[in-house]
Structure prediction request, 68 residues.
Amino acid sequence: MKLQQDQIWKQGDVYLRIVRLERLKVEYKAQKNIHLRDGKHHHVTKKEFCRLIKGATLLPMTVSEEPA
Prediction:
């Protein structure tokens, strides 16, 4: 699985949305509800993020969210 910006992962009852993806770090937003804008930003290494999403489910992108 290749990480991409704007992917949304579901880990338990928390949604993790990749906000910014760089070579060695990931900025993501943890939210309880993906339809609301509230949530907390986190900055971790790519390795830490991969460990975090182990066992999580990648939500499919809708047509309006797909990158051009």
User: Anything to note?
Assistant: Strands lie at 8-11, 14-21, 25-31, 40-45, 57-59. The chain has a mean pLDDT of 89.
